[in-house]
Every structure is written in structure tokens, then in C-alpha cells.
Amino acid sequence: MEFKDYYEIMGVKRDATQDEIKRAYRKLARKFHPDVSKEADAEKKFKEVGEAYEVLKDPEKRTAYDQLGANWKSGQDFKPPPGWDAGFEFSGGGYTGTDEAAFSDFFENLFGGGFQARGGHAGGRQFHARGEDHHAKVLIDLQDAFNGASRLITLQAPQVDEQGHVRTRERSLNVKVPKGIKQGQQIRLAGQGAPGMGDGGAGDLYLQVVFKPHAIYKVEERDLYLELPVAPWEAALGATVKVPTPGGAVELKVPAGSSSGRKLRLKGRGIPGKPAGDLYVILQVALPPADSEQAKTLYTEMQNKLAFNPRSSLGV
Amino acid sequence: MVKNQITLSGSILDEQTDLTLGDLCRACAVHAEWLEALVDEGILEPTGANVQVWRFTGYELRRARTVRRLQQDLGVNLAGAALAIQLLEELEHIRSRLAAIETRD
Q: Domain A2-119, CATH 1.10.287.110 — does that match?
């Protein structure tokens, strides 16, 4: 089990006042709030900060924690702590468990039993509560949004066992990904959250859909973007070219006089839905290499016969 | 385990979802009064002339839940939450635009 330095997590000194701790918490909570931050580990950090604040805001818990910290130091005088910011193996006063390093075990061991029991729920009173809602992200392929699919997802669900300990249990669900789903959209699975207490119903499971990056399409809402290389003569003279779409290749008419960056729209060829998204094709003029005598001759001929200054708009 | 292998179908929370005030209360685990306050603040914009026939979209469920988390976790008031939601939605839009542009070279 890892020892957690709650002061380090909060970025405050050990002698910080309660006000300073509160201010530090507010600031970090805003920074790492999962609704606000898009950092990959924001949720983990937010929970870590929440746990630290839970202890430090309560003078009783804080005192108990301080005691522990002091003891640990006195027991390990001669050993400088390795990497204070990474957390380290705690090996004093009965906390030498070989538990895996989930930090909430640390919290659980310190404050789980004793502190809660003292508050004490009245024995015979009935308690009803709706189960907690759970949230998870599900990573899908663009093709899944196009056709709909079933995806097996594995979730780490915290569950409370008979002894009242929180354990992580793996749970697999086979979930239908509806056709036409958009990036960031949520799927709600009623009753698949945490079980309720007493007569309270189970919570819901919310799945947020995230697309895996696609090799050729970029996604924006239901629209897709595709870069399409075209030959100079196709762009200059106009042509009908083949374009891949998730639903299969289609023919696209490139208007004469097109240049790089020109955006052409294939209506309704994006992700299906009401309304369906569009597929935007962005033309990229690709130059044939001048790697043969014939190619060089053609380029030279253009150079001599075409009065073309690509920098005329720059005034040079 | 076997039980879990049944394919589950959920509802997508989007503009097509049709939710009553009661649905929203249950999904957010809040009282109707709290949601009415969100309507007053302009965070939720249900269709329907009065409370009895209010209908909300899936987006509004998402919004209401975000507001609740912001209130509980950060202690913002409703006006602050309304502003945060508006800015977060703009940010989300800009981030997705940026992601589409950045990889386009």
C-alpha cells in the first residue's frame, strides 16, 4: 500500500491554515473537474484531490493524519524519502500490507473503520437510497457509428462487500451502439449503475462515446472531412474521380479551375442521422515528380509557355 | 456472468429524446424545484406551456447533470453554472473544430 502525502497533493505546507487548504482545494477542483478538464487523468486527479481535502478539511482527521506522518518520519530517520511526489511504500505501524497500490486503500485503512463507526448509523432504522449512477467512456470505430454495432465493454465497478469494504470488480457488458451516434454523445443504460439500498432503485450507467482516430476521415459532429489528392490536370481541367466514403466509394465531379484547399461537399455522406452529416472533400493538388526526361520536358514546356506567377498576390 | 452477455440497448441522449420533468428528476436524483430553478435561469429550455407538459431533450439531461456536479463539487451558484455550461459548450465545439483542422496537413 502506498502512503499518500495529502499536503503534497493539495500543494500546501504542513502548517497551512484551514482557509489556505480550502482555497487550494477550490482551485484544484476547478482545474481537474472532469466536466471542465480534458486531461486524460483529470478524473483520477480530481478524486485524489477530493480525498486529500476530505482528510485535511476535517481537523480531527487532519490531526490523526499528521500524527501518522510524524511517526513515519521518526521511524525512518536515516532514509530520505525516494521521490516524494510519487508516493512511497509505507512501512510503519501496521500499515505494511501487500495490497495493491490503490490509494483509496490507504484512506480506507486510516479512516474507513474507526471514523465511520464513531458517527454510527442508528441500528434499526431503515435506509433507502437510489443507487449511484456510473459513468464510463466507450471507444468505438467510426464504422460502428455508420452501421451500428454491438460492443463488449469491460468496466471497473466499485462494489461494497459484506464486510463493508469497497472492492473493484470487473464487469462486462455487451452494449448496442446505435447507428448515427455522434462523438461525445451519451448512451444511458437504465438500471445498470450501482444497486440501490433498501427500496431505492439501481442507478443508471452513462456511456460517453468517443471515436478512435480514423486514418483518413476527421470527424466533426456528424460531418466527415477527407483530404483527396488530385492531379494538376484534374484540378485544372475538371474531372470525375473516385472518392472513398465509409459507405463505399463514390464518384465526385471536380470542377475545372480548382486549386488546393477547395472544399467540395457530398451531401448526406457523413454519419447517418436526422439530419445525416455531410462528407467534405478537401482537394490537395499532388505534383507528379520530375524524375524522367519526359516529365522534365513537360515541366520546362509549361515554364516557357505559361505566364504563371504563383506569387502575384504577394506583390512580388 | 451469463446474464451480462445479453446485448443491452440504451437510449441516446440527444435532441430527439423526449423526457418529462419526472424523468429528469429521477435521472438526476433531484427535486422538481431544483429543475424549475434551472429553467428560470435559462439553463434548461423545455417545450410545453406549463410544468405539467414540459418536455426536455437528452442534451438537457446532460446539462442538468453537469450543473449538479458543478454545484456539488465546486460550489458554484446557478448563474455561475449557467455561464460555465455556456463556455464549456463553446469550448467543446472549438476543440472538435481544432482537432479536425490540426490533423489536416
A: yes
